Amino acid sequence: MEHRDAIERHIAALRYEPSDWSFANLWLFRGVHRHRWVPDERLPRIEGVSYDGKRYIMPLFPLATVDEQTLGAMLGDRDFFFPLGQRDVSALSTEAFCLSHREDDSDYVYARASMASLSGRELRERRRQAELFARKQMPRIRRLDVGSVPLAREVAEAWLVETRRAREATDIDICHEALDHQDTLGLKGLLVETGGGEPAGFVLWELLATDQACVRFAKGRRMLPGVYPYLFRAVARSLPTNIAWINFEQDLGNPGFRRAKEAYAPAHRIRKFRVQLKRQVDASGC
């Protein structure tokens, strides 16, 4: 947490689109990606390891403003600079840089207005599920705060049991850490309870430097069908009017995650580019 102010200041200045560009995300997943802050006064950066085991540098400065020799020395034996969006790499020379991406890394982005109404043919089934949940459960929505966090923890642990996955194979402990530090990290949240007072699901999100809100964690009881579309619609309706898009992050190559995210009809994907210097890779690598 000690470097938060400096990192947030650099991220705010860059206004990059991918969901990774957030102090909350960097801090919560510091163990997963082995993040290391390099507080260079002119060229600050974060070193890390990608989900597929590649070593990268996350530059907290525009790459196009630095000469190739300096960038090459900085990269050293690391694999690439990452994760940069389409807009963020547009100023780079294709003669000097190699650009690549993995669809597994690409963020799913939804129009807030569509999520708020769940309207249209593509979202008809999600709308039906949300309305069925509302009729059957008579739910109540609460702001996620100190008083309701214990209920969110109940949901998270019940979700883990229902998924039948090993604890270490999920993000549940990171989710609990996010609940611990919700206010410090600038996370917002909603919790939904059934009419009988049973906690049914919750969502934690944050507002990014751009016109996006990013959903960081969403947990719901599988025994209560429709809780997810009901929650996502509620989140979209609660967002500030300047937020046009909701980012649901990447699918990590997980077929289940992919199906779940595609079910909400994403408006577009944000690719996360891996940037290499051509002089440091074979021709076949570009």
Q: Would you mind describing this structure in some detail?
A:
The chain is elongated. By secondary structure, the protein is α+β, with helices and mostly antiparallel strands. The strands form 2 sheets. Strands 7-8-9-10-11-6-12 form a 7-stranded mixed β-sheet, sandwiched between helices. A 6-stranded mixed β-sheet has the order 1-2-3-4-13-5. Helix 7 crosses helix 10 (227-238) and helix 8 (149-163) runs antiparallel to helix 9 (172-180). The two termini are 37 Å apart. The protein has 2 domains: 4-102 and 272-285, Gcn5-related N-acetyltransferase (GNAT) (Aminopeptidase, 3-Layer(aba) Sandwich), CATH 3.40.630; 107-270, Aminopeptidase. The chain is built from 11 helices and 13 strands. It is 34% helix and 23% strand. Helix 4 links the parallel strand 3 and strand 4 (80-84).
What secondary-structure arrangement, pairings included, does this model have?
Elements: H1 4-14, H2 23-28, H3 30-33, E1 36-38, E2 45-49, E3 55-59, H4 68-75, E4 80-84, H5 86-89, E5 97-100, E6 107-111, H6 112-117, H7 124-137, E7 140-143, H8 149-163, H9 172-180, E8 188-193, E9 199-207, E10 212-220, H10 227-238, E11 245-247, H11 255-262, E12 268-270, E13 273-277
Parallel strand pairs: 3-4, 10-11
Antiparallel strand pairs: 1-2, 2-3, 4-13, 5-13, 6-11, 6-12, 7-8, 8-9, 9-10
